[in-house]
Specification:
Shape: elongated
Number of helices: 11
Radius of gyration: 22 Å
Strand content: 5-15%
């Protein structure tokens, strides 16, 4: 019974660890490698099946005499590269330093409970970054300023709606509409020489780049099921962005100009 309890507790930790990795935007192959590494540090092996919202895991000893299986839901965490890096480093710490399960639990909680960057700082930085995208597509200074304001408004709305747990598809539609509607002022009032660039780049901050990249890499690595579901979800978000833009065009009549 002692080995069974050890398998049970380690399985629960590994499942929590894997779901945290997936929630913050880690590629499937990397999730598997990191989780296998921790299991190996305890002298066990694990088999994992990953879906878009759930993970199925079986942990067993080398000769398959004892095993423990469980199914867990993926944690609702936001994309975060800092947590991604720290969680990956934790797997190497477990392997190199032979950390106890209790120490691993403490370190995991420290990683995922660390406060995120200031909300207002993120909004300002995203607005500046999208304005830079406008310049990259040959937008003039006036268009850059309009894109900055549009992105600021759209991303602020997105932040507020996500905090209120709105459906993410509706959030993308409303955020896209808000940003593009503000940017359409360049057309409506004749501001700047590149109003089309202002409208086109105002929604670039919403493009789901990480899910798209991860989905392609998963499919290439042979994780076709999770890669396809991730790709479909990313395509749905892109469609929502297009719906928000279309609403702006219909209301302002820009398409007829």
């Amino acid at each position: 019974m002692e080995i069974h309890n050890e398998l049970k507790e380690l399985s629960r930790f590994l499942a929590e660890y894997a779901t945290c990795l997936m929630a913050v935007g880690v590629q499937t192959s990397r999730i598997l490698r990191n989780t296998y590494r921790i299991a190996e540090s305890f002298g066990y092996q694990c088999d994992i099946t990953i879906f878009q919202k759930t993970i199925i895991m079986t942990l067993h000893d080398v000769d398959h005499t004892h095993s423990y299986s469980l199914v867990v839901q993926v944690k609702p965490l936001a994309l975060n590269f800092a947590i991604n890096s720290r969680l990956s480093a934790l797997s190497w710490q477990a392997y190199d330093e032979h950390l106890s399960l209790e120490e691993l639990r403490i370190r995991l909680q420290e990683i995922i409970s660390r406060p995120r960057e200031n909300k207002w700082l993120v909004i300002w930085l995203v607005a500046f970054a999208n304005a830079a995208f406008c310049r990259l597509f040959m937008g003039d200074l006036i268009s850059m300023g309009i894109v900055f304001v549009a992105t600021f408004c759209g991303f602020y709305l997105r932040t507020q709606l996500m905090e209120r747990h709105w459906n993410h598809l509706a959030v993308f539609i409303l955020s896209s509409f808000t940003a593009s509607f503000v940017a359409s002022s360049a057309y409506l009032f004749g501001w700047g020489d590149t109003p089309e660039v202002a409208v086109g780049t105002s929604v670039l901050y919403l493009i789901p780049g990480v899910p798209l990249i991860n989905s392609i890499m998963d499919i290439i690595d042979g994780h076709v099921l999770v890669g396809t579901s991730c790709f479909i979800n990313a395509c749905l978000l892109i469609i929502c962005i297009a719906i928000g833009l279309s609403a702006t065009f219909l209301i302002t009549g820009i398409s007829t100009l």
